Amino acid sequence: MATITRSDFANRLRERFGLTTADAYKLVDVVFDEIREALVHGEDVKFAGFGTFKILTKSARMGRNPKTGAPAVISARRVATFRPSNEFRQRVAK
Fold this sequence. Notes:
Elements: H1 6-17, H2 21-40, E1 45-47, E2 51-58, E3 61-64, E4 71-74, E5 77-84, H3 86-93
Antiparallel strand pairs: 1-2, 2-5, 3-4
Helix pairs in contact: 1-2
C-alpha cells in the first residue's frame, strides 16, 4: 500500500500548476496550517465533495491495560476526526 506524503503533494502541485518547488511546499504548509489552526480553535473544516474535519471531546472513562488486563482510567481528551462526504465514499467504493 502506497503512502502520499507532503513531498508528493508538493510535487503534484508543482507539476500541475507550474509552481516552483519552494512555492509548492509553502502552499501545502499553508493549507495544512489553516486546517490545524481552525481545529485548534474549535472550528469545523468542511470541503464540499471531500469531507469534514472536526474535534470531538471525549470524557474520561474506565478502560484496561491490554497487556496486563488491569483497570486503568482513560483521561478526557480532544481528538481530531474526519468524516468523508457521500461523494467521497462513492468514489472510493468504485
